[in-house]
Amino acid sequence: MTRRALMIPLALCLTVLIGGCRPAANTEAPPPDPQPPAHATPDATADVAASTDGWSCVVGDGMHLLAIPAAGGDPRTLFTYAEEPYYRQASVSPDGSRVALLDADQSLHVVSIGDGVAEEIAGALEGGAVRRAAPQFSPDSQWLAWIEDGDLRLRDLEGTVAQITQLGQGGHFAWSPDSQYLAVCLRDEQERGQGLWIVHRSGGDVVQVAPASNDIYAASFPAYSPDGQTIAFSRAWEGGMLCFASAVGEAERLDLGPAFGTLHWLGDSSGVLYDAAANEVETGGIFFCARDADPMPVVEVTALGFDASAAGDLAFVIGDEAPVTISVIEDATGERRSLPERALPLQWARCAWRPDGEAIAAWSEGDEDAALFVGGHEGEFREIFTGVHTFVGWAQQQ
């Protein structure tokens, strides 16, 4: 690995790429299932239907990946797994047109949400090799990246380019907003943290932007700011501490306070919203931390599941047994407008904003009775599906 003192500008686009072979694609749409693997609830009201028209929720029911019309209706089967995978790793492209997934044999596929056409991007693995974490599309939806045997691998989805960057033991990673760079968290063979590094999608030099911890509290869950200048991450094992690193230099702010899971940047890049789950030391809750300030509490109760829109609106779940409460705070870091709470017959629920911030999906996972609901900032939630094993994301009809 080569380390440089300064990172090349984010706008710079290197053109030297490693050529690769394009795997044979399945150009025929799969036949429809004779019987839908799960049922939809057809009684969505007109107001919910109007606000969700053209949108779908992509979910897994165990053996299938499905597109569920958010306005109500029958599910469409996008992919049938060879066997029920233990880890259901999948992600939806930012433009909502495709989903990338790992099958039970670790083969990697990209499926068109519109017509169900599937392409195998990388074949099955043998001998205990693994592809760690869900594959991730670039923000422009033109590239796919994943970690395989510790190395970062990329594929140009519109051409025949493949790129392999040997990192050692790559873990969590994130794309820069211009789709040019990736921030990768590294560990050694003993799982000790080796810091946060940046690499261009075409390969080349790997630049360290946050130091190695050399212990189990390794850099995790990186997230680029929308302006591409800063990377938020946590130094975590089961818990974690919030950190910031400059994406254009070597300045950093480390261990600012407990942080767990996904870090949500506001659309103006002013800071991140994140969860600090309760433990023996901390009271927990949802916090906001600006790039140049200390963390401040936004919600001072432990939320089992929460999501933040780019506009800074919060949706979060209180309670673990049915019924749970869905709460929404608009402009959570500014004027704060708390909307009426709504109860849903879910347990251990999670929630996700639609990418445009105009609707919310709420669900529980794990068995044939796990339900998926869709609603807006205010008003009634409607059940649109039962049998959720995993929620992948929102998709919009092209």
Polypeptide structure, described:
The chain has 398 residues and is mainly β. It folds into two domains: 25-30 and 37-129 and 355-398, no CATH class; 131-312, TolB, C-terminal domain (Neuraminidase, 6 Propeller). The protein is built from one helix and 33 strands. The chain has one helix at residues 46-52, and strands spanning 55-60, 64-69, 76-80, 90-92, 98-102, 108-112, 118-122, 131-137, 143-148, 151-156, 162-165, 170-175, 181-187, 193-200, 203-210, 218-224, 230-236, 240-246, 252-253, 260-265, 271-276, 285-290, 296-299, 305-308, 314-318, 324-330, 337-338, 342-344, 350-353, 360-363, 371-375, 382-386, 390-396. The longest helix is centred in the first third of the chain and has 7 residues, at 46-52. The radius of gyration is 21 Å and the shape is globular.
Query: How far apart, in Å, are the first and last alpha carbons?
Result: 42 Å
Number of domains: 2
CATH architectural label of the largest domain: 6 Propeller
Radius of gyration, in angstroms, nearest whole number: 21 Å
**Which range best describes the helical content: under 10%, 10-25%, 25-40%, 40-55%, 55-70% or over 70%?**
under 10%
Report the total helices.
Answer: 1
Unreliable stretches: 1-50
Descriptive terms for the model:
Neuraminidase; mainly beta; five-stranded antiparallel β-sheet; 2 domains; 2% helix; four-stranded antiparallel β-sheet; disordered N terminus; 1 helix; 33 strands; 398 residues
Give a brief rundown of this model.
The protein is an all-beta fold and 398 residues long.
